[in-house]
Amino acid sequence: MRAEILVEGQPAEAPALVLTAPISFWGGVNPKTGLIADVRHPQHGVSISGKVLCLPGTIGSSSAAAVLLELVTAGLAPAAIILHEPDAILLLGLIVAQEMGHQTPMALRVDRGEFAGFAGQNLQIGADGLITRS
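The structure assignment produced for this chain is given below.
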């Protein structure tokens, strides 16, 4: 499957982490550990670091970009981010990280209906946005 590339970044191969609920990066993800910190989130305590993070949605905060930038800087970012709908604020964190010279994960968009097929799979994401499962 070929996804729409929202922000170019590093190709990746990693396990998919399909979140079952939207998340706020501000207060919802610990930038020092990469763990989901929101105690009300179904995946509370799960690490997003090094995973292909499939987001069914985000809960807005203008600080989401800063949290994602901190994750990239600390080496705790997801291997790639797959969104159902683009989130300009969140993606700004990747763009700023690139401007600062960091290697960043790729951000892609696919239809939310594809997320279920990613669960439990290892995903390989090419520079051209091609997603393959293994």
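Interim note for the steering committee: The chain has a mean pLDDT of 95. The first strand starts at residue 4 and ends at 7.
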